[in-house]
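Session log. Operator J.P. requested a structure for one protein chain; no other inputs attached. Running the standard single-chain path with token output.
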Amino acid sequence: MAGFRSLARQVRDPRCDLALRRYSLRKCLERFAPYGHRATWDHLCSRAGFGPEDRSPDPARLVAALEELEEARSVWLAYEDEFAERRRKEKHDGLRRPGSVDDWHRLTWGGFGVAWCDDPRVHPDWPLAEVLRRLISALEREPGSVCPVCDGERLVWTYDLDHEPSTGPVCAECGILVPRPVLTPDALAGARRGRRLLMSA
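Structure written below.
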């Protein structure tokens, strides 16, 4: 099975058939897709300027989409390296029990679904790398009460997500499943109350 870098080489290779280059970009999302496969694909297509169903996009647009994905992957891999180093130090110092960020991180290792968007058409508009930087910053500071990506205040507790965890606070503004460790207990409770209010309306 080809890895991310070999697939990226195929996307860039002008000797490859255009269909293979597009396919290889799609396959990259099996290795790294911050919003999930479908939402990340929709995001890359809209930012690079070709349709999700376009079977023969401009090769330069494919490469532009790949470059955005690669930059975001670099941001995430650097965070994972720092995370792994921190855990090693904590274990060395006798802290064996992982915290809530560690529990969340275990579900997103490799970067799949880090900022999960259950609706593939609803996702942040910023470059993927910027979204991940905002999310990482939130993971490294005290919990807050708003979406770490867009500062949206409307968080709605959502069930039956096509993700693990399958329930949680979703930002009504940008569509991401907000990691629980970045929110205060009051913000999480407010998201649950918001769900009840929506159901009773």
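Operator note: The chain has seven helices and two strands.
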